[in-house]
Fold this protein.
Amino acid sequence: MDAIDLRLLEELQRDAARSNQDLAEAAHVSAATSLRRVRRLTDAGVIERTVAVLSPQALGHGLTAIVEITLDQQSAERLQAFEARVIADDGVQQCYRTNGGPDFVLIAQVADMPAYQALAQRLFNNDANVRNVRCFFSVHRAKVGLGIALPPASPATPA
């Protein structure tokens, strides 16, 4: 990736909803160059997908739960089965398999405490392999971001 790719990625992380023309202007390249490079970055898997970041409160999902899960048995099959179940649940926003502590850390976004209790019942309480659940509830959302710090640019390549 060169400096042009990195400028395009930086601009896309700020606002991916802008038109290609606006993106090209912000990155100081032609619209054709912008379109070609964004397609290449997408095809290469650098850009995984383009999404809108929504306000949970505006949509009635005012409770954020950070949940640590420890399983009794950590065989590959058991870990994969648990992971598949939690990522299929609409209440789970993020799922991380971790080590050195809990087996999983989840971020869940739900309407309220009864909605969290229903999620816990579905995903944790009914699973005999779940040994321990620790949950923390957010009292203030200071930052939500999906941006990634970009590496330094490699030497320029022809556009």
The chain has two domains: 3-43, 57-137. The first strand starts at residue 63 and ends at 71.
